[in-house]
Amino acid sequence: MTDPTKPADFIRIRNVSKHFGDFVAVDGVNLDIGKSELFSILGGSGCGKSTLLRMMAGFETPTSGTIEIDGVDVTNQPPYERPVNMMFQSYAIFPHMNVEKNIAYGLRKEGIAKQEIIKRVDDVVGLVQLGDFRKRRPDQLSGGQRQRVALARALIKRPKVLLLDEPLAALDKKLREHTQFELMNIQDELGVTFVVVTHDQEEAMTLSTRIAVMNEGRFLQVGTPKEIYEYPNSRFVADFIGTINTFEGTVSRIDDNAMSVDCPELGGDVRALIDDNTHVNVGQQVCIAVRPEKIFISFEEPEDHEGVRAHGVVDDFGYFGNLSLYRIRLESGRTIQVSWQNQRRSAKRFVEWEDKVWVSWRPRSAVVIKGES
Amino acid sequence: MNKQSRFILAVLAFGYAFLYIPLVSVVVYSFNDSKLATVWGGFSTRWYGELFRNDQVLDAAFLSLRIAATSATFATILGTMAGLVLVRFGRFKGRTLFSGMITSPLVMPEVITGLSLLLFFVSLHGLIGWPGQRGFSTITIAHTTFSMAFVAVIIQSRLAAMDESLEEAAMDLGGHPLRVVFDITLPLIAPAMVAGWLLAFTLSLDDLVIASFVSGPGSSTLPMYIFSKVKLGVTPDINALASLFILIVVVGLIVAWMAMRKTQTR
Amino acid sequence: MPQRTDKTWRRVTIAIPYLWLFVFFLLPFAIILKISLADPIVAQPPFTPIFDAQGRLSVTLDNFLFLLTDKLYAFTYLKSVFLAGAATVLCLMLGFPMAYGIARAQPAVRSLLLLLIVLPFWISFLLRVYAWMGLLNNYGAINNALMWLGLIDQPVQMMYTDFAIFIGLTYSYLPFMVLPLYATLERMDLDLIEAAQDLGASRTRAFWDVTWPLARAGVIAGCLLVFIPAMGEYVIPYLLGGPESLLIGRVLFDEFFVNRDWPLAASVAIVLLLLLVVPIVMLQRSQTGEAETAA
Description:
The structure holds three protein chains of three kinds.
Chain A: E1 11-20, E2 23-33, E3 38-42, H1 49-57, E4 64-69, E5 72-73, E6 84-87, H2 99-110, H3 114-127, H4 143-155, E7 161-165, H5 173-190, E8 193-198, H6 201-207, E9 210-215, E10 218-223, H7 225-230, H8 235-240, E11 245-254, E12 258-263, E13 268-273, E14 285-290, E15 296-298, E16 308-319, E17 323-330, E18 335-341, E19 356-361, E20 367-370
Parallel strand pairs in A: 3-8, 3-9, 6-7, 7-8
Antiparallel strand pairs in A: 1-2, 1-4, 4-5, 9-10, 11-12, 11-14, 12-13, 14-20, 15-19, 16-17, 16-19, 17-18
Chain B: H1 3-30, H2 46-53, H3 55-88, H4 95-107, H5 110-128, H6 136-161, H7 164-172, H8 177-206, H9 209-214, H10 222-230, H11 236-265
Helix pairs in contact in B: 1-11, 2-11, 3-6, 3-8, 3-10, 4-6, 6-8, 7-8
Chain C: H1 7-36, H2 62-69, H3 71-103, H4 107-118, H5 125-136, H6 141-148, H7 162-187, H8 190-198, H9 203-214, H10 216-231, H11 235-240, H12 248-257, H13 262-294
Helix pairs in contact in C: 1-13, 3-7, 3-10, 5-7, 7-10, 8-9, 10-13, 12-13
């Protein structure tokens, strides 16, 4: 959630488009990012996220629209004049300079006094824990060390905004988790605004204060990780972030704060909640989306009248230690996914293959998504 | 488009014009009817006809082709052996001298190579009476020596890029080392050998300086014949000969390029 | 890793190319060295034997002393260095932007551009130099074009000048400059240039801070590949230069064939080789370095 005391207009992106010939990479995007946010732009390859980042860095000029940073219009400023620095996906460490020279490069271009440079290099090298590697050449560094050189090299310029292009993609899984928290700590300590571009939804979820999900040059949803996970506003977002079961249906009745949706795959009317943002009419096509972990499994039919329930057979299940994943074939023939926390060993007996079970969820666990996409 | 890329484009255009205008002008003038090579006297193909009636040109061309084919074959055999030795044989006594001798001809000015070989042949003749007459054999030896270096470099880079485990697998499956070379290594480096042969062939066909040193009276290669004529200035029949060369090379490269694209897209 | 090769087969494979190079490459050099230390005589062969009739060693440094003291030779060497150097610089100035442009072109265009760089290699060197005779002539294409444009009223003498040699050298060896430069520039990570700009370097600054130092290996290789053969060039000064445009390659040739002074020709060759030893060793270093990083 954004801090209400810091208005979210440190970076203002207004109607920005970028065309490459006939191809529209970014299509009229609007976005506000607050000071000290750790903001992620999430999307698959070719969705326009890298182009957007490169426009913020100054490597591409928007076909139309403006970009403001801290009240200054930077749309047509070259990269070397912007108060913005970038950490490249490849890290782009200069191979012909040692660690220290790489890190000091940006300050030397600013013409800062030698004493000052030495002091600031000392500070930043301490911050990213590269003290022992100052004189190393880049080819003698590990992937994690290279990542930290790239980070230090960008941070030493004290940018107003740090852009990170897939910052963790080049690291192996173990290191990625560790580095993720390191990045968050450094961001927290310095209060610099981070804009991260990534295709990895898990990375975006853990790192960010807010996420923008991007597809085909547009933002589909902008919100906190929780908002995006719990209340996806489209099939695309729901599918892209985590796993979700979706059921097509038609609105059959509307009450004050709830409605009935006729879902053939669930064998008839099911209840769903209406919140302030859902405006639906009777007869409208909607989609009920429910996460696997929000679904209960039981041998007996649940008693809750309001709840959504369906009968089915366990097709397949996988045991993952802390949780189990089930694929359950409903009577309609539709298969859904359910995950089950293995907290209680007291359960009378485990649910197994070919068991006949009931699945159910509370109306407030499901999300109603309008439209087709 | 920014200033930098406009500058680059301008230099590219200038560079290619610089490389190709001379060639184009030769081709244009080869169809010039006038005997004065610099004055345009109307379109004609007569110089091509004269070229094919000129016995000296045909003899010289035939000698050059024989030398080129023979020396390219020897150079490919020796160069392939040398490449194998350098990449796959590890250390042996005198390896440094060997790799030095292999790479030196690549960078040696032609006049030095030519002079040294001529002095060598003269001394050899003084000692053992061979070669009595310098010509085909001496030029072939000279060309083999300097073009085997080029073949060795091509083979070397191909072998270095090739996975040695293929050969090890063949030996693991019971292949005798010598068999492995013929069954596995040679087929895999065959394209490089073909490229090496073609390069050696072209180098031999192209060489004037070394051949001038090591040939004797009465045997002149095509470049030697051309040189003796163009020393005196521009002549229309040489324009025709040059145009033929250009035609052959352009057609050959287009065919090779299309063949390459075809295998790439497949 | 040494392979478990059959011993005899291994020895034979090493021995054949080894012997060939030893006999036809190394021995001839020993002979050049030997003859450069002899006196010329009117005989066949036209030099004194290294051991005289009494079996005493008979060597002389006269030839080298002559080369050092004679102004003409010193001048010839200097002129060769100067012309080869100037052609190298022009090749670099033309070749670098060309290689850069090719390396940054679309892949389909790139292979065509590269082919056009390589194509002249396959056309006779002699005929390519010859092509310039027709262009540089007083009544050649260049003079005709300039007169037609009204830039000059009378033909400018270009043929048989040092300028013609300079153009000929640049033209013939330009591809040798472009190819190694292309190889290094094509491999370069473009992110590095953007990173430099991102950190405050202008386009020009980023070029000198990043592109240029990283292209150094290619620049060195390209310059040497142009300079070394240009130093010993014979055909270009003969065909395009005037009778007084004496470069070493041509002096060596004439000394041998016209004056029949074999010992002096051999010493000219030795001195040329000494001049080129440093660049040749540098070139071999840079190439083995390349091969190792490529492997």
